Amino acid sequence: xxxxxxxxxxxxxxxxxxxxxxxxxxxxxxxxxxxxxxxxxxxxxxxxxxxxxxxxxxxxxxxxxxxxxxxxxxxxxxxxxxxxxxxxxxxxxxxxxxxxxxxxxxxxxxxxxxxxxx
Length: 118
Description:
Layout lengths: L10 H7 L11 E4 H6 L1 H11 L3 E5 L2 E6 L9 H8 L23 H11 L1
Parallel strand pairs: 1-2
Antiparallel strand pairs: 2-3
């Protein structure tokens, strides 16, 4: 039985049941098969960008899920860049201004001065 109809699941629905986004009306976006056909490219780009799952329905019944492909070969940094959460550096380390806490002298000289002040 399913949460939306009270009827037994068909074989296709049983396949979808174990996919992310199936089983709760708020867990994934759903689109009808007609909308999917008309906007497949846009939906695929959206899934790629956001990482969210889209459930495709036929007459209100889930028949397939569209989700991001497993990206096991990508580093954490690459996944964050792809998700738009971080931006890769555009310059070199020489472009970064020295931090205000950096000492103008060698640490041994600073320690010697501090000891002399006591």
